[in-house]
Amino acid sequence: MRVLVIGGGGREHAIVAACTRHGHEVLCTPANPGIARQARVLHSPQDAASLARLAQQEAVDLVIVGPEAYLAAGVVDACTALGIPAFGPTQAASRLEGDKAWSKAFMARHGIPTAQHLTFDNLEDALAHVRGLRTPIVVKDAGLKAGKGVTIAHSHEEAGAALRDIFSEAGAKAVIEDFMTGQEVTILALTDGVRYALTPPSQDHKTIYEGDTGPMTGGMGVICPFPVPDDALSLIRETIIIPTLRGMEAEGVPFRGVLYAGLMLTPQGPKVVEFNARFGDPEAEAVLPLLASDLAQHALEAAQGRLDPDAVQFQRGASAVVILAAPGYPAEPVRDIPITLPPEPSGTAIFHAGTRQDGEVLRSNGGRVLAVTATATTLQEALSGAYSLADQIDFPGAQMRRDIGHRIGLAPGAEV
């Protein structure tokens, strides 16, 4: 199959690797230096119409859209209009991620469990509301913020600062919700809008510093699978995944692609923290290396409304991802730092998330720069493999959390 992957981060590198593993010819735009070693890089304007024309000119059999911004811009719609199968939700369906206020209202309409919340379109009312709440308070920018538009405020002053930042932009909305307790877990559903297949549960580590402290990031490390009890998995299917797909279909915006359910396993049962409309990043770098079956084939069938869930198969074992982020991230990441990569032993991979090639020199070119993945029989072995490889990377000043997996008692030196 001839596949065009759209995007240029760690998630897209993992998608490219999953497709090439099954012998597909992969093209990618805008790509990155790591992707360029596995796929043919195409240069194109990144608007929806240009990307659809590129897919048509290259006579691809399938387009896989990685980042949320492209989905919100209507890339899938533009490809579909030209008769090209595209894996991902339409512009209208991607609103489930792109507009948190709409998403929360959708959950309320369809009885999908989530935190108690209110949405505000002006700063004064939002500030008045938080003054009456107990801390911690969760403040979310309703728009697309690449996973970083969330503040867990431990004081009213912190909540107010977050709200002032959100409403500094015209037309902003803020969602203010109760703080939920429990283990946070991600479930990804590959779906054709009706049928679906779940990936193994994974757990990201969102804050920049160890001990789950510091500012929120796009994700600093992942373990997969996260041990979700069978009864909780059944509840997730019955109260979240199925009602969401049925609800989207009932509202005339069927959801095809990857439904990302960010969940909290609360004492009252699983609840939605947020929905995303694509593979998570860095969850994709943990989940896709465990996929034994053919991602491109599943994506094509889902795009055409004929997914076979039983064909989606994952290998036994576990994976772990450790992120190397640039100094200054998430505020002002330092760019152009030279990086030297070691060889990748069997069962490991270094996915490029924010790099650029400068002649013979690889340099940092973003906040989260590299995702180091290892697969193994156990989570502890996977973590050890990921950290071992990460420690061999020459990347001066890189930030790396040393406690990935700590919430279930795992860490590089922990016993299984």
From TrEMBL:
It catalyses: 5-phospho-beta-D-ribosylamine + glycine + ATP = N(1)-(5-phospho-beta-D-ribosyl)glycinamide + ADP + phosphate + H(+). Keywords: ATP-binding, Ligase, Nucleotide-binding, Purine biosynthesis. It holds the Pfam family GARS_N. Pathway: Purine metabolism; IMP biosynthesis via de novo pathway; N(1)-(5-phospho-D-ribosyl)glycinamide from 5-phospho-alpha-D-ribose 1-diphosphate: step 2/2. Residues 104-304 form the ATP-grasp domain. One of its GO terms (molecular function) is phosphoribosylamine-glycine ligase activity. Gene3D superfamilies: 3.40.50.20, ATP-grasp fold, A domain (3.30.1490.20), ATP-grasp fold, B domain (3.30.470.20), Phosphoribosylglycinamide synthetase, C-terminal domain (3.90.600.10). Its cofactor is Mn(2+); Mg(2+). GO terms for biological process: 'de novo' IMP biosynthetic process; purine nucleobase biosynthetic process. PROSITE patterns: ATP_GRASP, GARS. Its EC number is 6.3.4.13. Belongs to the GARS family. PANTHER family: PHOSPHORIBOSYLAMINE--GLYCINE LIGASE, PHOSPHORIBOSYLAMINE--GLYCINE LIGASE, CHLOROPLASTIC. This is Phosphoribosylamine--glycine ligase. It comes from Deinococcus deserti (strain DSM 17065 / CIP 109153 / LMG 22923 / VCD115). The gene is purD.
